[in-house]
Specification:
7 strands
């Protein structure tokens, strides 16, 4: 999967250490996902290869306070209850989900779906951050509103 970002997003991603040829080892991510019962699918693996270990600085959600997001699928998997993904979130997203990071003071778990959707969940709050990785990361970087999914 090749990611195509607009110039503004690309500039901020580069500052965070991302580049289009980035290819990190995913062995630990795979181990943690499988240990927790997730079925690994191509979108998750490609995201992890490209963004694993990236920290993004951005504004807090709905505020100008500084915040950050960290894309470490292993940490997100260990800190997330898989039952929430299966029992609550997957029906709302209409796709299978897997954790890929956390943001907003570690409260929001980022999940990617089998169809490429990018989501965030925190207990009963669940939202679509973007229909694609590119849209989601731009929404995070530029403090745009997320689409809260009813449930």
């Amino acid at each position: 999967m090749k990611f195509c970002f607009d110039e503004k997003s690309l500039s901020l991603l580069r500052r965070a250490g991302w580049h289009s040829q980035r290819n990190v080892k995913t062995d630990l991510y795979l181990l943690n996902w499988r240990k927790d019962g997730y079925t690994v699918f191509p979108h998750a693996l490609e995201f992890a290869r490209s963004f694993g270990g990236i920290h993004l600085a951005h504004r807090g959600y709905g505020s100008d306070a500084p915040d950050e997001s960290h894309f470490d699928p292993s940490v997100a998997t260990r800190r997330f209850d898989r039952a929430w993904a299966v029992d609550k979130y997957e029906g709302l997203a209409k796709e299978i989900l897997i954790p890929v990071g956390q943001g907003y003071s570690g409260h929001l778990t980022f999940l990617i779906g089998t169809q490429g959707g990018f989501y965030g969940g925190y207990d009963d709050y669940f939202c679509r951050i973007g229909k694609t990785v590119e849209e989601a990361l731009a929404n995070i970087l530029f403090g745009r509103a997320f689409e809260k999914l009813p449930g």
